[in-house]
């Protein structure tokens, strides 16, 4: 791809509106030092120095999109609690539209709260209720999506199996999108794969793709990809393969894209970066193969950063140039 063309596409990122629907989470990092053992029980006492709130789950996809300059709408369900306030505050600090986030009284905001002393994680506390949302909440969520459907260029369904993407929610979104020619990409949980028949694309990792079809580890990854794409009637399927990069299953052929990551520090959240860049590039008019190359490039940048991270357009452009070097 020519440099001008790539720059044009990256410019388009700011004009595209992507709706993320899924399980929004809050990651909390409580960081301190330990100087003594508690007199109450044989446990360390952490003297807290700072606390950091980070967007997690589907909210990390929203964060990736916002960092890339895209317009985003997030649709999800959080609790009517203080962690819900914190999650909304982080969204607002980043100028992310939260009109599609529904607050309910009967389930908590999903939180993963870590207590860290120095570099050592001492404990993690999780809050969640992963049961499917009630029918009335499904109605509310689907109605909100309907209200905005004419502004949306693409949907990302980010399924962490925490109850927002019920079979009905998934199916109705795909139906709505079909009628309007809107892209729908899915980061699936294998047991819910059947909910996503007819989506544009799916981005499972190796293990998830195997599990979607109930196959064992020894099965050929290329056979799995082909079969899954057919079975779910997807336009294409992007199978992420960690250190082996990714494979795109299109209409006629399979494209294998190797990874060019030089330093790998932390692969957490790489999948969220992949689906964000892939969808945004596709919605900006890029061919799916080029979009996959760009997503793979972005993943190569993000695995070189510590913690759940995001990438900017400038970082993608620079790394793409250093890999493919087609412009010099
Ligand atoms: N060890 C690695 N070395 C090089 N690149 C990697 C590595 N792990 C991940 N990547 C890059 O990140 C992309 C997505 O990684 P992976 O297949 O592990 O997705 P995932 O399991 O969905 O990730 P996540 O942990 O975010 O759910 C890969 O296609 C590749 O480009
Ligand atoms: Mg993943």
TrEMBL record:
Ranges for the Carbohydrate kinase PfkB domain?
A: 17-311
User: What Pfam families does the record tag this protein with?
Assistant: PfkB
A single GO molecular-function term is: heptose 7-phosphate kinase activity
Source taxon at top rank: Bacteria
Spell out the Gene3D superfamilies in the cross-references.
3.40.1190.20
Q: Does the keyword Transferase apply?
A: yes
Q: Which InterPro entries match?
A: PfkB_dom (IPR011611), RfaE_dom_I (IPR011913), Ribokinase-like (IPR029056)
Family matches, as PANTHER family: BIFUNCTIONAL PROTEIN HLDE
Question: Which named protein is this?
Answer: RfaE bifunctional protein, domain I
């Amino acid at each position: 791809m020519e440099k001008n063309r790539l720059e044009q596409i990256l410019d388009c990122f700011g004009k595209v509106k992507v709706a993320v629907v899924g399980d929004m989470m809050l990651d909390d990092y409580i960081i301190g030092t330990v100087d003594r053992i508690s007199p109450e029980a044989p446990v360390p006492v952490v003297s807290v120095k700072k606390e950091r709130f980070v967007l997690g789950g589907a909210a990390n996809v929203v964060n990736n999109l916002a960092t890339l300059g895209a317009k985003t709408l997030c649709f999800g369900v959080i609790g009517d609690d203080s962690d819900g306030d914190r999650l909304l505050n982080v969204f607002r600090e980043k100028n992310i539209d939260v009109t599609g986030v529904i607050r309910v009284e009967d389930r908590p905001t999903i939180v993963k709260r870590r207590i860290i002393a120095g570099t050592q994680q001492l404990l993690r506390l999780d809050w969640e209720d992963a049961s499917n949302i009630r029918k009335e909440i499904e109605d509310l969520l689907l109605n909100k999506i309907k209200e905005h459907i004419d502004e949306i260029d693409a949907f990302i369904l980010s399924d962490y199996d925490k109850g927002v993407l019920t079979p009905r929610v998934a199916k109705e979104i795909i139906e709505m999108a079909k009628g309007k020619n809107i892209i729908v990409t899915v980061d699936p949980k294998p047991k819910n794969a059947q909910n996503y028949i007819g989506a544009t694309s799916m981005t499972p990792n190796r293990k998830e793709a195997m599990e979607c079809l109930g196959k064992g580890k020894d099965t050929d990854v290329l056979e799995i990809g082909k079969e899954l794409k057919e079975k779910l009637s997807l336009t294409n399927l992007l199978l992420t393969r960690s250190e082996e990069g990714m494979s795109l299953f299109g209409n006629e052929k399979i494209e294998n894209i190797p990874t060019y990551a030089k330093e790998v520090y932390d692969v957490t959240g790489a999948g969220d970066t992949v689906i964000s860049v892939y969808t945004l590039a596709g919605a900006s008019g890029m061919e799916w193969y080029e979009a996959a190359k760009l997503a793979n490039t972005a993943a190569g940048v993000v695995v070189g950063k510590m913690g759940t991270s995001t990438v900017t357009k400038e970082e993608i452009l620079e790394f793409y140039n250093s890999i493919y070097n087609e412009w010099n």
